[in-house]
Amino acid sequence: MNEYHQIIAKNLGLTEIQVFNVVLLLEEGASIPFIARYRKEMSGGLNEIQIMQIRDELHRLKEMDKRRDYILKTIEEQGNLSKELQEKIIAAKTLNELEDLYLPFKPKRKTKATKAREQGLEPLAKQLMVQTHTNVEELAKRYIHPEKEIHTGEEALEGARNIIAEWVNEHSYTRKKLRRLFEKRAYLKAQVMKNKEHTGVKYRTYFDHSEKIATAASHRILAIFRGEKEKILRVKIEPDPQQAMTILSNIFIKADNASSQQVGMALTDSYKRLLQPSLETEMRAQLKERADQKAIEVFTGNVRQLLMAPPLGAKRVLALDPGFTSGCKLVVLDEHGNLKHNETIYPHPPKNEVRQSANKLKSLVNAYAIEAIAIGNGTAGRETENFVRKIRFDRDVMAIMVNESGASVYSASKVAREEFPDYDVTVRGAVSIGRRLQDPLAELVKIDPKSIGVGQYQHDVNQKRLMQALHDTVMSVVNAVGVQVNTASKQLLAYVSGIGNTLAENIVQYRSEHGAFESRQDLMKVPRMGGKVFEQAAGFLRIRNAANPLDSSAVHPESYPIVEQMAKSLGVSISELIAKKDLQKKIHIEDFVTDKTGIPTLQDIMEELAKPGRDPREDFSVFQFSNDINRIEDLKTGMQVPGIITNITAFGAFVDIGVHQDGLIHKSQMAEKYVHDPAEYVHLNQKVNVVITEVDINRKRISLSMKGIQQ
Question: CB within 8 A of 407, min separation 6: which ones?
């Protein structure tokens, strides 16, 4: 581990002690949120992203060492491991370096070069490489051997060239030089395949496309590769072949004679047949990895913002899943999200039961003291919103559009069936819409993040890396917000630091059998809740109205004695210390520093005492679309309308303006100055004012701009 932490520290620009401590904690089973929140003294205050980078770099180095050990063992078993080669393999810093060194010794299928060696042509190849022979025809005649299928001097020369071509391909210095050329000068080229102009019209932008791979945008890379996979585009990656041949000539051509001409022919063959395809494959993998990384960053950033959406809170909600022919499914939820009533109303064509539907809503709002109406934003969403807003209720009721992406996935899931075994998918979908309004995080953790609808090419990227990144993101958000242990679902509890699926089920089971937990310490009674897990989880779990007020805060139980000392030093109780800000100001945190507890932790404690159990999410605010705009046909160029950001990509942001078709603000239309990364300028669920710049009704495309508009 000593060598690892030195390399990681250098690669990430961190101190060795920071990396050493984080690696130690990770290998002891500590979660990333726990290290970032409760081990700041050990990590030197590293944030979750930096800790993830350490974890990922550690994994990369370990995997590389596994490969290094395998290569050393394989070459040694062949009897080819010289001291010099061993030193080079041990010193290799990248996987490409390792593979280049291994290539000459890698077991391979029969090639043109292996056949030539079997024919005894390797000595001829060596003589040609020296480049001193001027009469290669005479030289080659010595190797004519009909029994070995060498009938002419040219056949001998061809076999020798095949051997030279393989030597060139396996020459590590050559591969390094050409790799650098590919990385800096290669172009990504796409052409439409024959007779695919009409079937592949969505890839029209790339029918005749060429750009340097060094600067190619991630979304274009993924789009081109998808077009190739769908057999619409023909794709090639390479630099100017002449530049590659110049590099090869400079390395291998030593003279100007017949031998060097043979070597030159071998170089051309080696590049076209071996080097170019091999390096193109490498570049494809690198490009894909780079594009994947960007797409995953965009996707996880969107998921984080969606999960951090402001909650309405513990309010009684009537939720509507809109529809025309099938009607609007209606459910009533209490302030805890429990289903109290469900039925269907038909306010739209073809039934047009407007009055009956309005009366039903008024009756239910009164009967259940409804405080908000949640309306799904799918089919018939705007029409249902307009219908609801025209009703004169007897009490103040908010009508709020809710993004229902993924609700249908939840309604058909095992989780939904377990929660509502006696109800069909329409009821479950409406419940999901209502609960999303109450607490988006608690509801969305039940859905595969890939189904939430905020990604960019999420099905094209490396799925293993995507799932890890999404898990990290959801876990980060859940622990940042904190979880009310007496009301949380097992899906939400499973993301709490240290808990996981099995223990989450145990907590819910224990809660149902023994009633609500009265203190954090009660969690120790849950089967399989050991001391280590409790240490990891306790600070992120909240117990409302506990006897000890710290149990509903983010103060970790291990720090309770410190808070008790603080309160004792002022002669007050912990409750008084929390309630009175003037008392908190009298605390000098330097007086409470210990060997284990430093200033960073003490500062966190003071912040938590000021706002115990604070929710880091923004306060909820109601958003309303323009009443005059309901369909894409209502839009006119130059109109200024309100909208809400629904998705962010590398090239811009999509905005719901209430017409069942999101519009696009290209990043060039976000501000007067150039916006490189849209995610740095706008965020998901942001309310924005936009101008309609173009409407294409046939293609259902809406172009928007934020330039020069007061936000």
Answer: 321, 376, 429, 432, 433, 436
State the average pLDDT over residues 374-383.
93
d(CA 437, CA 76): 64
CB 229 within 8 A of CB 244: no
> What is the SS3 assignment for 108?
coil
**What is the spatial distance between Cα 532 and Cα 29, in angstroms, rounded to a whole number?**
9
pLDDT digit string (tens) for 217-272? 998 999 999 999 999 999 999 999 999 999 999 999 999 999 999 999 999 999 99
Residue for token pair 């001829």: 124
The length of the chain, given as a count of residues: 711
CATH class of 317-438: alpha beta
Query: Which stretch of 348-357, 405-414, 685-694 has the lowest confidence by average pLDDT?
Result: 405-414
Under 8 Å between Cβ of 67 and 534: no
Reply yes or no: is the peptide bond before residue 642 cis, omega within 30 of 0. no
The top-level CATH class assigned to 632-705 is mainly beta
Domain 112-299, classified CATH 1.10.3500.10, yes or no: yes
Answer whether 0.90 is exceeded by the pTM. no
* CATH code for the part of the protein at 492-610: 1.10.150.310
Domain boundaries, the chain: 2-105, 112-299, 317-438, 492-610, 632-705
pLDDT for the residue numbered 679: 85
Instruction: Show contacts of 448-451: CB within 8 Å, 24+ apart.
Output: 448/406, 448/409, 449/299, 449/303, 449/473, 449/474, 451/405, 451/406, 451/409
Helix%, strand%, coil% for the chain, nearest 5: 55, 10, 35
List C-alpha distances in Å: 590 to 500, 586, 602: 37, 12, 8
CA distance 191 to 235: 7
3-state SS assignment for residue 240? coil
Supply the DSSP symbol for 271: I
How many other C-beta atoms can be found within 10 angstroms of the C-beta atom of residue 134?
Answer: 12
Whether residue 674 has pLDDT greater than 80: no
pLDDT at 455: 67
Q: Are strands 687-696 and 640-648 parallel, antiparallel or unpaired?
A: antiparallel
Once rounded to an integer, what is the mean pLDDT over residues 374-389? 93
Query: Cα–Cα distances in Å, from 513 out to 357, 420, 486, 516?
Result: 41, 20, 12, 9
Residue 322 exposure: Cα atoms within 13 Å on the Cβ side: 25
CATH architecture of structural domain 2-105? Orthogonal Bundle (1.10)
Query: Six-digit token pair at 58?
Result: 């550690």
Contact 671, 706 (CB under 8 A): yes
